[in-house]
Amino acid sequence: MDRALRDLARSIGGTVATDAVRLERVSHDGSHLRGQPAALVAPRDADDVVRVVRWARRHRVPLVARGGGTSLDGESVPGPGALVVDLSGWTRIHDVRADDGWARVAPGVPNLALQQALALRGAFFPPNPGSWATSTIGGNVATNASGPRSFRYGPTRLWVREIELVLGDGTRTRWGSRVRKRSVGPDLVSLFVGSEGTLGIATEITVRIAPRPAVRRGLVVPLPARGPPGRLAVALGSARGTGLSAIEYLDAGCAAELAGPGGLGPVGPGPLVLLEVEAESEREADRRESEVVRTLRRTGVRASPVRFGDADELWSVRGQASVALDRRFGERIREDVAVPPDRIDALVGAIDRVARRHAVPVYLFGHLGEGSLHPNFVVPPASPTASRIRGELVAATLALGGTISAEHGIGAIKAAHLEREIGRPAVEVLRALKRACDPDGILNPGKLYPPRAARRSSRSPSGAAGSRSRRGGPTGGTDRGAAERTPRPGPRRRAARP
Predict the structure, then answer these.
(1) CB 54: neighbour CB atoms within 10 A?
(2) Which member of 35, 178, 306, 363 lies 3.0 to 4.6 Å from 376 by CB, making a disulfide possible if both were Cys?
(3) Cβ contacts of 116 within 8 Å, gap of 6 or more
(4) Does 471 score more than 70 pLDDT?
């Protein structure tokens, strides 16, 4: 440990580590990218975080905040020489006010742990990503995570009231309020949600919570092998009296990986739709399930649903889809795109054409009710073929009026594509916000913001696979412009431009 790190260790109540075992643990996330952190700091409290940020400014060291490390586009992968700020030990649920509809938590609380605590109070936190057992509330906020229930309840951004954070200049501040509504200018909380740790480090989060339905019934419905899932999504999404809070899809390949005992059960060889029906009594749930079945019949689906009495059990199984594909195929392209529901079938067709064009298998699952799909192309994710596939998928999605990221975020992997969706003026607004909050560019560099060098080639992007640029960043891809400038240790210089 060098002198600067020893000074940091003496100045905080937490710990600083440089041993290889712990650094390897925080060098990667759920993507294929790998980083090269210089050290790991586990701050004890918010005052420690302030000291860490101020130390990093003095020494020009990049900081990467980390919780469960489940991000899928390199958001929590540290660049060379970075200091990882490990908040996974911050697991305290400070306060729950079910009657007033909020809970105040530390950023390292796992999503599922919060759900279990809230269930004792008759409440729940609607966002439930597939990684809910390990993903943290801080990470959910950083990426604007969603999950099956976002069909009814929306993404994390709608469920955050207040955030205590430390900005990139070491200022400790609080954005938002616990009141149910207010009008005091642009919503800073909404700007922070989805910013991927590039504006500040959250030290406390107040989330909105909702009353927990008395009944949550899961339904697994086998679909015809060649039926258009988009037509079904529109029919279910517009049906009345169903109480649906989730409409999920598994293609035949994904369904096969999750079938059998301990999984989805005997569901047949074809694709599946997974549904959640909410109600306040079993009788009401029966009525609503009957309406769901009638809607399915009108779209040509004749199979009877397999019932899960507790839908959370179904979502725990569904959350293993990526894990099952990991076991079978290892690293691959794990995408996250969305289109309006009436264009789902066009997107599915485009995905199939991309896979056939490059002669690679593709497995598809996602949040059908919102048009949010996760195509998994079985190809090495850092290969030139992967780069071309990503570029073609981005083009096809945007041509259908869609988005390049529905819930995983941008990270390092998609940074070069952001301007194609939101345009250069919007990117410049984001850069100005970044400079205001992080004048030295030390917070999670290389993520979210498009590299300036990539502008000239933005019309035909190479499909950035989160590679390292000339100035450094996470490794593992092929696009030389995927990472923005990484601050280097050394004397203070003028503020870095994001």
Answers:
(1) 16
(2) 363
(3) none
(4) no
- Which of 34, 26, 138, 135 minimizes the C-alpha distance to 84? 26
Residue type (1 letter), 223: L
Domains and CATH numbers, the chain: 1-212 (3.30.465.10), 215-321 (3.30.70.2190), 331-399 (3.30.70.2740)
Report the alpha-carbon distance of residue 133 to residue 128 in Å, rounded: 9
39 vs 6: CA distance, rounded Å: 11
If you ran DSSP here, which 8-state letter would residue 43 be given?
-
pLDDT at 474: 63
What pLDDT band is residue 476 in, cutting at 50, 70 and 90? low
DSSP label of 200: E
DSSP symbol at 263 = T
DSSP labels, 86-113? E-TT---EEEEETTTTEEEE-TT-BHHH
Bridge partners, residue 221, by sequence: 273
pLDDT at 104 over 80: yes
In DSSP terms, 42 is beta-bridged to: 15
Neighbours of 433 (CB within 10 A): 17
Q: Are 282 and 331 in contact (CB under 8 A)?
A: no
Buried b (16+ CB within 10 A) or exposed e, 167-191: bbbbebeebbeeeeeeeeeeebbee
Q: How far apart are CA 198 and CA 437, in angstroms?
A: 9
User: Pick from 486, 483, 470: which is nearest to 416 by CA?
Assistant: 483
Instruction: Decide if 188 contacts 151 (C-beta within 8 A).
Output: no
Decide: 437 and 448 in contact? Cβ < 8 Å. Answer: no
Helices marked H in 373-416: 384-399
Query: Residue 262 contacts by C-beta under 8 Å, 6 or more apart in sequence?
Result: none
DSSP letter (8 states) at residue 275: E
Q: Which two tokens stand for residue 273?
A: 């739709």
Beta-strand runs (E) in 235-271: 244-250
**Residue 262 CB: number of other CB atoms within 10 A?**
8
| DSSP one-letter code for 496 | P
- Mapped onto helix, strand or coil, the DSSP state of residue 338 is strand
**Inter-residue contact 252 to 202 (CB < 8 Å):** no
3-state helix, strand, coil in the chain (%, to 5): 35, 20, 45
Alpha carbons 150 and 101: distance in angstroms, whole number = 18
| Measured distance CA(253)–CA(372) in Å, rounded | 18
Picking from 86, 140, 134, the residue whose alpha carbon sits closest to that of residue 112 is 134
Torsion sign over Cα 246, 250, 254, 259 = positive
Helix (H) or strand (E) holding 163: strand 160-167
DSSP state at residue 305: P
